[in-house]
Structure formats: C-alpha cells, structure tokens
Amino acid sequence: MQNAISSIQHQRRARKGALGKLDLMEERAAYLFLLPWLIGVVFLLAGPIIASVFISFTKWNLSATPTWIGLENYRRMLFDDPDFYRSMGVTLRYTLMSVPLYMVVGLALALLLNQKLKGMNFFRTILFMPSVIAGTAVAVLWSMLLNPDVGVVNQILRFIGIANPPRWLSSNEWALPAYVLMGLWSIGGGVIIYLAGLQNIPPHLYEAAEIDGANSVQKFLHITLPMLTPTIFFTLITSLVGAFQVFDGAYVLNGRGARRGALLFYLLHLYNEGFRGARFGYASALAWVLVILATAAIIITFRTSERWVYYEVDTER
C-alpha cells in the first residue's frame, strides 16, 4: 500500500514538473511572439513620446543639437503666438458644432436602419461605404462640389433662385460650417456602432412597455435612450478625440497647410510650426498642450458619465 501511494505521489510530481516545463515553454513562446510588438512600442511609440517631452523644452530645427531653453516655448505659446489661440478657437468651435450634430444624426439614422424591413442591409452597406474613403480624397471631392463658381452645390442654389450663394470654403463665415457638414459624409461608422447598441437592447422591455400602453415616444425616452447610454458615451469619447485630431481634410482644403484663419485647426498649426517652420521644439510643446487639454476633457467626460450612463449589470448586483 505504501509503495502504491509513493508511486502515485511520484507520478504527480513528474506530471507537475512536465506541466511546469510546458508552461515555461509557452511563456517563452508568448514573449517571443510579443517581441516585435514590444520593440515597435518602445522605438516607435514610447521612445518618441518621451523624447518629445524633452524636445518641448528645447530649440531644435533638426540640423543642430537641441538647445535647452526651459519654458520659453510655453511662454511664447501663451503670449507671443496669436495662431495658437486662433487654431484653438477653430478646433473648439468645430468640436462644439460637430460632436452634437454627428451624434444626433448618427442616432437618427441608426433608428431608421434598425427597422425590420426588406432590403435594409443594402441601405446599411450604402451608408457605411463612404466612411472607408480616405479623408484626403473626401476633401478633394468636396472642394470641387463646394467650388463657389462651378461647384454642383452652388449651381443647385442658383437654379432654385439664390443669386449669390455662399463661397463656402473660401469664406471665413462659411468655411467651418461647410467643413462640419462635410463630416456627415463619413458618419456611417458611428451609425454602425449605434445599430449594434440598439440591437443589444432586450426585446422583452419593449413588449412589457407595449402591454403597459406606452407609445413610440415613451418607449424611446424610457427604454431606448437609457439602454443606449453606454453606446452614446463611447461615441462621445471617440468623437471628442476625433475632433481634436482634425488634420488631413483641413490640410488639403487649406492649400497644403497654408495659413488660413477659418480652417486653421490646432494640428494644422502644429504642422506649420514643425514641418514648415522647422521649429520642432515649439511644435512638441504645442503637441503636449493638446494632449493635456484632450486628456482633461476626457477625464471630465468620464467623471460626469456616472450621472447619466446606465449599465444594466448594476441592477443585477
């Protein structure tokens, strides 16, 4: 009996040793597969990020050794650079105009496309397709459509009796609203996210509401919106991040980065300072100010989300 017990214990120890070696081999293999990604993160992401912090306190034009100037770049930004405030104002106005518009229109289209009708998948595909087109191509297309002299939009406006239609992108008054409306072209991605959220709402909630006599508006206000708040919150965060990162379309419409106040977005100003003016220290300082402001906006959004975002799991605890 004692020999049998000893044999079993020996087999268990041998099995544990084999499993330990197998786990170690799998762990090494996992690190080996992760190594290219880790190298990329260190040299292409983390390294440049850390370097940009140092560069933001220097004067550097790539042709010489960076010269330490302390907070001079940040002082210049606040007191000697009117384009900093101009570009920040353009970006903030764009954010306030575009984020609510895109979210409301995206939700409205998602509600329409969520109907159980024949051929609805075709319309979903058609709506999503423009969102995969590159931003530069979209900007070139809309620059032709909104051409004040021969563009299709102004031709239609003249046809219906508007003798002097807006000059759109060449007008300081209309350039930013026109750019916001251009963004509706690529709203399909947000619509798909809303659709996923709508289809995740349990049908029995609507059935119970119908039994209680709720109409469509009441079901939307008391079921759809509360259950969709996590999706709305996600869309809000991604929309805010996207609004702070506007560059490619504005670059094309601004004549490859030329200074033009109406569409001088923050990243375009950063590009002008860094790659046109060869002031990479100052451009790095601009980048870090944007990171701080965007992070603050996202933190505030997360903090306030506790008041209006409803997670169904909270009721099951």
How much of the sequence lies in strands comes to under 5%
Distance between the termini: 51 Å
pLDDT averaged over residues? 87
At the first level of CATH, what is the class of the largest domain?
Answer: Mainly Alpha
Question: Residue share in helices?
Answer: over 70%
Q: In one word, what is the shape?
A: globular
Radius of gyration: 28 Å
Helix-and-strand structural type = mainly alpha
CATH superfamily of the largest domain: MetI-like
Number of helices in the DSSP assignment = 13
How are the strands of the largest sheet arranged? 1-2
Low-confidence runs (pLDDT<50, min 5 residues)? Answer: none
Examine the secondary-structure arrangement and name the CATH architecture of the largest domain.
Orthogonal Bundle
Order of helices and strands: HEEHHHHHHHHHHHH
Structure summary, number of beta strands: 2
CATH topology of the largest domain: MetI-like fold
Major sheet characteristics: 2 strands, antiparallel
Could you explain how this protein is built, in words?
It is a multi-pass membrane protein. Its main location: membrane. It is found in: Cell membrane. It is a single chain. The protein is mainly alpha-helical. The protein has 13 helices and two strands, in the order H-E-E-H-H-H-H-H-H-H-H-H-H-H-H. Helices cover 71% and strands 1% of the residues. Helix 8 (188-199) packs across helix 10 (216-244) and helix 12 (266-276) runs antiparallel to helix 13.
